[in-house]
Amino acid sequence: MKLLEKIKNDIVESHVWKSIFRHGYEDTPRNRVMMVTSNVFLHLHPAKVRRHAIRMRFTWCMGGLTFFMFLITAVTGVYLMFYYRPVAEYAYADMKYLEFDMPFGMLMRNMHRWAAHAMIVFVWLHMFRVFLTGSYKPPREFNWIVGVLLLVLTLLLSFTGYLLPWDQLAIWAVTVGSNMARATPLLGYEGPFAEFVGANPIYDARAFLFGGGEIGPHTLLRFYILHCIFIPLVASILMIVHFWRIRRDGFSGPSL
Amino acid sequence: MAEAAPEKKLPVDDKIHTWPHLVRMEFLVALFVFVALILWALMVDAPLEEPANPTRTPNPSKAPWYFLGLQEMLVYFDPWHAGVVLPSLIIVGLMVIPYIDINPKGNGYYCFKERKYEILTFILGFHILWIVTIIIGTFFRGPGWNLFWPWQRWDPHKVVALTNVDLPYYFGFRHYWAAAAFGTFAVLAYFVVVIAGFYWWVVRVKGKDFMERWGMVRFTITAVLLALMLSLPAKMFLRLVFNVKYILVTPWLNI
């Protein structure tokens, strides 16, 4: 034991260790606060939280898990991006290559897909929990709006990713899911009053979404960029706002 | 009446340190879910079908499962309404919740009694109209978007008689403009009845001074959104029981 203690002290008091961790950890109230406030990731949390708010029965952990699923899809998604080309000629072949040739390719793809589905379920449950506890009530009204936007973005993230495997399931699910856009009033060529605006099959709301009159290679590239860059960026910005406001307003709970 | 709720005794300062209490829990929950996800991903492969072929439409073509509620709505309303207007209104309707709900009670704890109508409305909109339609769309719809029980074979040649008729036709309006006028009347009457009924209900159950505090703007937004939400089960009922196709038929749009 003596030896272990000595080794530990040698490490903890070394120049390198001190340069990284700055101060030792004594379990004092001050240090508990410092652990949160002096860590760039943890300081998203308030230093102290209401006791009841972190009970499993109360929070269900669904908001945090939604974010965790986002992180998993981001990490596995980067791995998939190394091997996938969003070009109609290559996309499907790259999927096969990824599944059968790449180390852990199938596992990464499975995790990416199931985490995306789980993210949707978790975000719905999170919304349900926040509704049940009335946590959208003042002063948290605006954060609920940000949350609704994040819910929509979660669905869009999953939807744009659905096209990328470029198999039958992908293009037909996206075709069915996007066909409604052509029925947009005024802006879709099959929608009411479209003739007054002059919308036509290659120049309407769905064509804007597809990058052309039909689903095709241009759609693949468009959805790829939306899926990998645009929506994650917007969602990240909204997440920053969402988390920051939770930190400012505190976790909801009955008034003392 | 709400005063009767038992007062929970809370200590003056019930705060605890985020580190280690919250961080520990987050770590453990994340670890547990991570392991579960890896096991799931090891056991169940993500689907990959044959290469995309724009000339071969599968029957049925289904949207991703989380949009099947919207696809199911297409049975009852035209795409401009079921696919564009209603989804937009769902998003807007969710966003206005904090502003139309002025009940200060039930903030930060579970309580059904203090806000039962709010919770019941949410359960109707979310669990029944959203989740149940997804379940129907996922498990009960086969080729031609016809209804099949899960144990039935998906018969692509299943013959379903097209017996739906428009509502004005039921009431004997065969002339074009008379039918459109009747349809307009029916749609307007629906909104008037629901909104007036809601007003009557609020004044009766919640009281006059609640109505005053609530204000006309909040009431109108809530009533219109409620009428639109209820229009889905209303139309489903008319379709499934009376085979009504459209209520309003015009050259530009049908409802």
Describe the structure in your own words:
The complex is a heterodimer of chains A (256) and B (255). Chain A is mainly alpha-helical. Chain A has helices at residues 2-12, 15-21, 29-37, 56-59, 62-83, 88-100, 105-132, 141-163, 168-179, 194-197, 205-210, 217-249; one strand spanning 48-50. Chain A folds into 2 domains: 1-48, no CATH class; 55-249, Up-down Bundle (Cytochrome Bc1 Complex, Chain C). Chain A is built from 12 helices and 1 strand; from the N terminus they run αααβααααααααα. The relative contact order of chain A is 0.10. Chain B has 2 domains: 62-158, no CATH class; 161-255, no CATH class. Chain B contains 8 helices and 1 strand; from the N terminus they run βαααααααα. In chain B, α3 (79-100) runs antiparallel to α8 and α6 crosses α7. The model of chain B has no long low-confidence stretch (mean pLDDT 90). The interface between A and B is large, with 93 and 76 residues.
What is this structure, in a nutshell?
With 256 residues, chain A is mostly helical.
Keywords:
heterodimer, A: 256 residues, mainly alpha, Cytochrome Bc1 Complex, Chain C, 2 domains, B: 255 residues, flat
Straight-line N-to-C gap of chain B: 43 Å
Q: Segments of chain A where pLDDT lies below 50 for 5+ residues?
A: none
Span between N and C termini of chain A?
Answer: 48 Å
Bulk shape of chain B: flat
Order of helices and strands of chain A: HHHEHHHHHHHHH
Helical content band of chain B: 55-70%
The number of helices of chain A is 12
Q: β content of chain A, as a range?
A: under 5%
Greatest contact between two chains: A-B, 93 and 76 residues
Oligomer: heterodimer
Structural domain tally of chain A: 2
